[in-house]
C-alpha cells in the first residue's frame, strides 16, 4: 500500500468569504489558518500547499474577550535608536484592523517557505466590500 500524495494539478482551490463581525479574534484566526493550510480537505498533506484562498471582511468589527483591547500591545521598531513604537489593540483596530487579523493568522501558519506562500492567499478588508466578486467566494460560517 503506497501513501497517496496529491499532484499540483489535482489540487482544486476554492475561495471562501469569512465575515469577521462579532467573531472572536482567536477563533477567526484558527479557522482561517485551517482553510489556508487545507486541513479541511481529505487530501491534506503537511508539506504541500493544498489550501484555499480566504477573503475576510468587516475586520474592524472583530471581537476580543477580557481586557485585551487595552493590554495587548503591537510593537514595531525601525532599527534606529529610540524608535520603538507600541500600539494597543484598540489603536490598531482604529488605524489598521486588517493588520490585526493578518498578524493573528500569521502566528498560526508555519514559519517557512510554505507558510509565506499560504499567507499570500489571505485577503483581509476593513469593510464589507471586497474586489474578489469575480472569483465567486463561498460564504464560510464560523461557529462560536
Task: Tell me about this structure.
With 144 residues, the chain is of the alpha/beta class. The chain has a single domain, classed as Ribosomal Protein L13p, Chain: A, CATH 3.90.1180.10. 28% of the residues lie in helices and 18% in strands. The strands form two sheets. It has a four-stranded parallel β-sheet, with helices on one face. The N and C termini lie far apart (40 Å). 22% of the residues are buried. The model has no long low-confidence stretch (mean pLDDT 96).
Beta-strand segment tally: 6
Order of helices and strands: EHEHEEHHHEE
Query: Helical percent range?
Result: 25-40%
Oligomerization state: single chain
Number of domains: 1
In CATH, the homologous superfamily goes by the name: Ribosomal protein L13
Distance between the termini: 40 Å
List the helices and strands and how they pair.
Layout: E1 15-19, H1 25-37, E2 53-57, H2 68-71, E3 73-77, E4 84-88, H3 89-95, H4 97-106, H5 113-119, E5 122-124, E6 138-140
Parallel strand pairs: 1-2, 1-6, 2-5
Antiparallel strand pairs: 3-4
Helix pairs in contact: 1-4, 3-4
